[in-house]
Every structure is written in structure tokens, then in C-alpha cells.
């Protein structure tokens, strides 16, 4: 059975699709548990594109108005550590709004570049 558009929007937000991820960090929001809501804060890294997204989920849903705001991944490891300080790294599959990122494809070589490579190999 096909998933309805409204269900996809509730689950993933405005994009209606999971976020691509290579690394995922999670922090439980304990103050919601008292109200019976399973709430988590996420930092989702897509290293293939060099971006990260912060998101919250409530009972596994990002909510229909969620819009991913992509920010660059900090280039310094100390800045990444500071950003993820109170979070725990988890498997991508553990994040209800993410899926494994596809590897970046290598740019195709032009005919001239291919010819150069072949010449160099035969020399």
C-alpha cells in the first residue's frame, strides 16, 4: 500500500523524504518523557556533501512543518566535538528521519582527459 503524502510530510517534514546521512548523533529530550512523548534531538551529517542538519523528532516524526536547514560541517575536529558534546553517535538506521547517504559519484572525464590518461598509460 502506498504511503499518503500527508503521512510522509508528518514523518519527514516539508521534503517528504528521509535525510541522507553518513553519521548521526542523538540526544534524548528527557523532559518530554514525563508527558509520554518519545522526543529526541538529532544532528545528521552527510559527509558526501559536507553538510549537517539539526532536527527534533517527537514519537519518531519530524512534523509537517520541519524544513531541513543545511549547514556546513565544521572543518576542525574540535568544532565537531564541541557541536556534538551532549550527543551520542548512533547508527544511521536508528534515526527515524535519515537513511544512508549515497556515495558521491566521481565526475566523468571528458574525451580529452580520457585520451591523456590512455597516452600516459601507454608511454
Task: Give the SSE map.
Blueprint: H1 5-12, E1 19-21, E2 23-28, H2 30-33, E3 39-46, E4 51-58, E5 71-72, H3 77-83, E6 88-90, E7 98-100, H4 111-122
Keywords:
123 residues; alpha+beta; 5-stranded antiparallel beta sheet; two-stranded parallel ribbon; 4 helices; 25% helix; elongated
Overview of the molecule:
This protein is of the alpha+beta class and about 120 residues long. It has one domain. Helices cover about 25% and strands about 25% of the residues. It has 4 helices and 7 strands. It has helices at about 5-10, 30-35, 75-85, 110-120; strands at about 20, 25-30, 40-45, 50-60, 70, 90, 100. It has a 5-stranded antiparallel sheet. A two-stranded parallel sheet has the order 1-7. The chain is elongated and about 70 Å long.
Count of β-strands: 7
Helix content: 25-40%
Number of helices: 4
Q: Give the low-confidence spans.
A: none
What is this structure, in a nutshell?
The chain has 123 residues and is an alpha+beta fold. The protein is 25% helix and 27% strand.
